[in-house]
Amino acid sequence: KEFRHDVMGHVHAYGKAAPSAMPIIHLGATSCYVGDNTDIVQIRDALKLIKRKLVKTISILREFAAKYRDLPTLGFTHYQPAQLTTVGKRCTLWMQDLMLDLERVEREIEDLPMRGVKGTTGTQASFLELFDGDHEKVKALNKRVCELMGFKKAIPVSGQTYTRKIDFNVLSVLSGVAQSAYKMCGDIRLLANLKEVEEPFAKTQIGSSAMAYKRNPMRSERVCSIARYVMGLPMAPPILMPTSGSRERWTTLPSVVSTFPRDSLPLMSFLLFLPTLPMASTCGPMSSRLTLWPSSLSWPLRSSSWSVDEFLADEIDPVLKANADLLQIDSVDAVNV
């Protein structure tokens, strides 16, 4: 309230706690040096959390697909009865989508750059002044800051901010995860109507206030509801999205761009990552406790389970092996990255 500036409020608070450090706490830096680099760190850590939940969900679905690879069921095209398939084979379609999402998430984590030490307008002028014009020292500082934050690189050039194309790329990845969750849970909702599959139903759970016999697929409904929101984030109206600055940034950074995206990172995190986390968290546990009704699946089938076995062995098992450390976590809802 006193300074009406988020970063300088912190600088002065730290300065009061450590008076001797006050003159150099923010020396050579700019608000976006603090804010943008922090945003990138939070984005990376949030993507790691999404990755963990994807791996856990794929692991659970792998067991489900292997268990029911020979159980025949009616396949559909246009949601009309078509050729027979198996429950396990249908599950591999969900897994394949999630595998593609996992690849995108891993690539985004690997390629994500820091803004780095760029100065107020990206020229590094303030740092050059501090180092008496020594470019090599500025380069070394930039590299060291990235290393300390756990990044392999900084974005090559920037203005006051890093390019908001990075935000759009992250939004696209989250949208992809939501699309996969929507497909999987949409299938479960349709199959529940046919009494082929059912979500976990607690002992004291009530399906309806007026019709106690009902068993609504509420978890899948919840996932689909959140997924519809996340799926549309890359194309959301500019006024709502942190990427809106891409079209308004001009040659400098007007306050209309800097204020919403950068000063409201908690809101940005809520809008982008928080909906994705419960969606990913629900898919895994729900999949581990799906109930099948064999009487609704008793179709004669002359087929082999080779395609399911081959998919699991060639595509799924290597990924699970590479991420074995993530599978050691007891709860899919563990939040530490």
What composes the largest sheet? Answer: 2 strands, antiparallel
Mean pLDDT: 79
Q: Which assembly state applies to the chains in this document?
A: single chain
> What percentage of residues falls in helices of 4 or more residues?
55-70%
What's the total number of strands?
4
Strand-pairing-aware structural class: mainly alpha
Q: Helical stretch count?
A: 11
The shape, in one word, is elongated
Q: Strand order, main sheet: write it out.
A: 1-2
Measured by DSSP, the beta-strand proportion falls in 5-15%
Radius of gyration: 25 Å
N-to-C series of helices and strands: HHEEHHHHEHHHEHH
Instruction: Give the N-to-C terminal Cα separation.
Output: 33 Å
Poorly predicted segments: 242-271
List strands and helices in order, with pairings.
Layout: H1 6-17, H2 31-67, E1 72-77, E2 80-86, H3 87-111, H4 125-130, H5 135-148, H6 165-193, E3 197-198, H7 218-231, H8 255-263, H9 265-288, E4 291-292, H10 306-322, H11 324-327
Antiparallel strand pairs: 1-2, 3-4
Helix pairs in contact: 2-3, 2-9, 2-10, 3-6, 3-10, 6-7, 6-9, 7-9
List keywords for this structure.
mainly alpha; 11 helices; 5% strand; two-stranded antiparallel sheet; single chain; two-stranded antiparallel ribbon; 337 residues
Written overview of the protein:
It is a single chain. This protein is mainly alpha-helical. Helices cover 57% and strands 5% of the residues. It is built from 11 helices and 4 strands. It has helices at 6-17, 31-67, 87-111, 125-130, 135-148, 165-193, 218-231, 255-263, 265-288, 306-322, 324-327, and strands at 72-77, 80-86, 197-198, 291-292. The strands form 2 sheets. Strands 1-2 form a two-stranded antiparallel ribbon. Helix 2 packs antiparallel against helix 3 (87-111) and helix 7 packs antiparallel against helix 9. The longest helix has 37 residues, at 31-67. Residues 242-271 have low confidence and may be disordered.
